[in-house]
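can u do me a favor
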């Protein structure tokens, strides 16, 4: 399962849907995210919890370790998958209107052949497998 920043920050700030995400993660044999997702989560957590970015980054690192979520590199091939994703689902005429960040999230999940766990309803309008 590839976990995006929205889920990481929801769980770390105890949002209403945090328990549901935790339950879904328990079923996964593999849990992973990217450095970009971890950084994005740290920025969101920093703002929400009034922590410095460095403190929020350390909190994310600890959370990833506790939840057994692997931090995997963004593979070079993901750049090209993201470009194809943007062409297909990007901010043009497609109803998903994926942002650049969304396209990289999609690309990483696709590259690692993992279902995507996200709060965003945008991915519902794509062909990515959802967790």
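np, heres the sequence
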């Amino acid at each position: 399962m590839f976990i995006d920043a929205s889920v990481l920050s929801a769980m770390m700030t105890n949002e209403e849907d945090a328990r549901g995400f935790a339950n879904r993660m328990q079923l996964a044999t593999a849990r992973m995210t990217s450095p970009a997702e971890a950084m994005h989560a740290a920025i969101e957590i920093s703002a929400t919890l009034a922590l410095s970015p460095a403190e929020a980054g350390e909190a994310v690192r600890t959370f990833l370790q506790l939840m057994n979520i692997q931090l995997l590199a963004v593979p070079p091939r993901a750049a090209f998958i993201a470009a194809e994703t943007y062409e297909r689902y990007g901010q043009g005429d497609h109803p998903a209107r994926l942002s650049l960040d969304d396209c990289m999230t999609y690309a990483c999940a696709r590259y690692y052949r993992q279902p995507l766990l996200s709060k965003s309803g945008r991915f519902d309008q794509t062909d990515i497998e959802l967790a």
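Residues 35-49 form the longest helix (15 residues). hope that helps!!
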